[in-house]
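Cont'd.
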Amino acid sequence: MRIGARIGKNCHIHANAVVGDIPQDLKFQGEDTVAIIGDNTVIREFVTIHRGTASKGKTVVGNNCLIMAYCHVAHDCVVGDHVIMSNSAQLAGEVVAGYWAIIGGGALVHQFTQIGCHVMIQGGALVNKDIPPYCMAARYPIAYEGVNKVGLHRRGYTSEQIDAIADVYRAIYDSGLNVTQSLDEAAKLPASPERDVIIDFVRASKRGIVRKP
Amino acid sequence: MAIHQFAVVHPDAKLGENVIIGPFVTIDANVEIGDGTVIDS
């Protein structure tokens, strides 16, 4: 556990994991930064979690996460609560992974990519576009593969909520409009927290969201 | 709190209650470990 590591309660850190070592960012100048791990999080063998740079000052992994062996969480990443990263998943600098996301084994996530909540990412995927909330993402080039219905159902979302999410994505992907216009269409759908989570995410996306295959 | 004799723990590190540190673990200065956390090796 290197200088700057802040590890929460009831975590289990397995052999040869490194938390808090310095960023690999060439812009890093030795500034005082931290790497924060929440409570009840499991960090498996040989995981590397580097501390932040001047950009955010911190790398954060949330509560109740499972970061499997050989994963990498780079400087200034923010990994939400209940995220699972399967073996050897790699997050480049400043990646944000939303709560309950599952990142498949061996996936490589490009720097600054945003991964929405409750997302399911295929193993081995090359992720260089933002993945909007509640979706599945697969293929090369990375593509939208539908709503993560199984994940949502397992976590207690009702059929009505899941259908509402699917309606929002139908507006975004099937309306024939460009993304900005489709968000206006989506905003006309019945109000729900999930609808707003999706619209806000897509609107804020800098890298652009995945397209349909 | 149990710290293995082969672990290297900086005196300034802040370890919570019931923390278990296994052999060959390195804990630098300016590190905080919460209660009940286990670090294997």
